[in-house]
Design a protein that fits this description.
- Chain A is mainly α.
- Chain A has helices spanning about 5-15, 25, 30-45, 65-75, 85-95, 100-110, 135-145, 155-165, 170-175, 175-190, 195-215, and strands at about 15, 20, 50, 55, 115-120, 125.
- In chain A, the strands form three sheets. In chain A, strands 1-2 form a two-stranded antiparallel sheet. A two-stranded antiparallel ribbon of chain A has the order 3-4. Chain A has a two-stranded antiparallel sheet with strand order 5-6.
- In chain A, helix 5 (about 85-95) crosses helix 11 and helix 7 (about 135-145) packs across helix 8.
- Chain B has a single domain, classed as STAS domain (Transcription Regulator spoIIAA).
- In chain B, helix 1 (about 25-35) links the parallel strand 2 (about 10-20) and strand 3.
- Chain B has about 110 residues and is of the alpha/beta class.
- Chain B has helices spanning about 25-35, 55-70, 80-90, 105-110, and strands at about 1-10, 10-20, 40-55, 75-80, 100.
- Classes of the chains: A mainly alpha (about 220), B alpha/beta (about 110).
- The interface between A and B is medium-sized, with 23 and 24 residues.
Amino acid sequence: MTTLTLADEIVVLMLDDGAGQINPGCASIAGIAIAGGILMELALRGNIDTDLKSLFVVNQTPTGDALLDECLKEIAAEPERHPSTWWIEQLATRYDDLDRRILARLVSAGILREEERKFLWVFSRRAYPPVSGREEREAKARLMSILFSDEVPNPRDTLLLSLADSTDILTAILSAEERDKAAVRIEEVVALEEIGRSVGKVALDIRTAMAMAMAAYH
Amino acid sequence: MEITSTIDGDLVRLNVTGSIDASTSPNVEQAVSVALAGGKRRLIFDMRQVNYISSAGLRAILLAAKQAKAGGGGVAVFGLQPDVEEVFTISGFGKIVPIAASDAEAREKLGA
């Protein structure tokens, strides 16, 4: 069985299963969410740590995951310390193909399949529908479990919830009534992890900038 | 970092000195495992001598709270220094782990 990283899981959750592509509602912040997922995974594996001021490497031992190790190497090579918001933006900008790389590894792992689809009868595009959808169902079940129980959440699920909240996936998973019921719990759990808060902050900054640009255009 | 434990009935008090970060949080996790394996359900972290806590350190305390609660007990902390208290406040940790000013208050919050 393949163990998914948080970056893999957030891509699985962001996928529009029918279209086989990242949901357009998440597209503008997909790179931010994946970069955040990579940093969270490195933190959970004990390679990096954060505090209120900065993100720093504590163990340079490779994880064995090519994408994680590439990012770890880049963080380790940076002479100055920076806050996690800086690193989220840096990785998302530097690696502008993060979504394609994650999609490709999910195909290799047999979780998604790659298809060529036609649109407007002429143009073709790649689609990545899920093979069984089991991974998405399991991730959603974990999110629901955190939201609707009073258990202390584990760090991995806490971070997954932060990513889901930042990308607005929760609005698709939960009914309006469920969202209202879970609002306080979401706020509490998302606040727990520094990298989770940072991803939310960067995502909000992007959404605000886009809204201002749209308003100026109209 | 140093960590020592004191058993007091159904409760274990973990006295921590120094920094709780990625390199020292495994020691916290180990001390918590030993305490819980000994059948204790309630843990109090004496944080008066803790001058720094990182995200990995907070995670170790969160896991302790999760394990203790699963066994029907709980975790409380007391004696936070200002820098450490700021971390707890920003992360809203107090909503999951009771924060007390003194050992007596921590015991009270755990119903001990």
